[in-house]
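hey so u asked for the seq, here:
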Amino acid sequence: MSEARIVAVTFRSPPLVKMEEFANLVAADPGGDTVAQVIRNSAITTKGMAVNALLEDPRRWTTRRRMDRSLAEARRLGRDAVTAALAEAGLRPEEVGLFATVTTTTHSAPGLDALAPELGLRADVEMLSLGPMGCYAAVPAVSACAHWVAAKRRPAVLLAVDLFSPHVQPPPYDKEQAVVLTLFGDGAGAVVLLPEERPGPGGDPARPGVAVVDSEQLTAPAYAEDLQVHMGDSGLRIRLKPSMPDVVASSVAIPARALLARHRVRWADVGWWAVHPGGRRILDRVDEALELPEQSMAAAREVMREYGNTAAPAVLGVLRRLQETQPLARGEHGVVLACGPGATVWALLLRGT
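ran it, structure tokens below
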């Protein structure tokens, strides 16, 4: 892959709700005790909810009402994420050549791309709407944007938003739905990519960032039914089988090792690993399978504890946290790992610049 640089990553969440308070909401419902037990074992203490079920309960909403509210809240949260990313990158909105969006939970045409004029982007900015892909979506979306930047030599902005609070399902709750109810939170992430040699504002030397080197995907279709997201009569319906942690753990090393081998990077020389915070059991099994550095796994667990699994934006939150606490030195490599429906695993190789 011809290289583009990531120079800004932002993550935004709506107001956080304490999981113990959320458990109280469903305590009297059929399966409420199962939800409470799952919450206690989840290692999630809070999560963002654009539709706060403690203040307005969406569980009896129609699909149309859920989708309308989801789009409105996604645009609001996405606007904040992109505005912050542009400011962090020192980039004016009119300089953006590509505005790409990705979401699994918010479907509309126009959708998130309708933010372009509100953000001050040019009328001729190229727009690319991606999705639904689920939890791994940010990785192929970043890869696609990097290819565009390398080809066009112009800046790109990626916005990833997923909101699950408008789609909270009504009871009864079995173990699988209790996990879904607990795990998924709302979030938005934005990424700014520049051509590798682009100077900073005012002709200053290019600001440090991370080069997008290459990516690798693996799909295990035998497990395609283990994780699915579909639109139903009451909004999004998610199927999440308990086998997913083992599926991910048995697959995740394959694209990572292929990627590193292709670029002659030793496993031990990777500075950090940004792992999608897909749930406590997924993180535990990935940690057991790959024996990743403690600081890398701690970053993923921290993001999950604070925000839950926000699907596409989640790994961007981990990436930002690692770059803040352990910025890649020039020439040092980092790897982003994300998994989702398919069953699919993506790996993205980055390099400090």
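The two ends are 16 Å apart (CA to CA). The CA atoms of residues 81 and 227 lie 28 Å apart.
lmk if thats what u needed
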